[in-house]
Amino acid sequence: MGWHDRPRTWPGIARTIGWVRISFVNQLGVAVMFLTNSPSMAELMAARKLRPELSDEPPARFRDRIRDGQLDMGVLPGIEARRICERASSLGLNVQTSVAHQGVYVFQDCTAGGFLIVEDDIEAERVAQEMTPQSQRSCRLS
User: What domain range is 38 assigned to?
Assistant: First the structure.
């Protein structure tokens, strides 16, 4: 039986007032959104600069990756996705991101200075429910 199977038991963590739940977005889906279904040569050249593997790809295969005016860049770690967004913006490209996975939660005890890290969505909700409503606040960092 794991500690999560025992209700109301957090190993070595006191239930004090002042918990803050912070969730980190780990992965983002990234897509380049072209102005039309048939991107211009300038847009294609700019998009190929976003990642090294795109610039090395044969042009015909690269064009085949574009569907309905959109180039799916896949699901990327948050920091990499943000760098691609910044690069795309500097190249004049529009990028759309979506949360693909939100899986790390940090519970901070503001009164005692402790932290509890939970990497499972269900377990994080269980821990949050065990906190008294007046003792928890929540925010999301992305």
Answer: 27-100
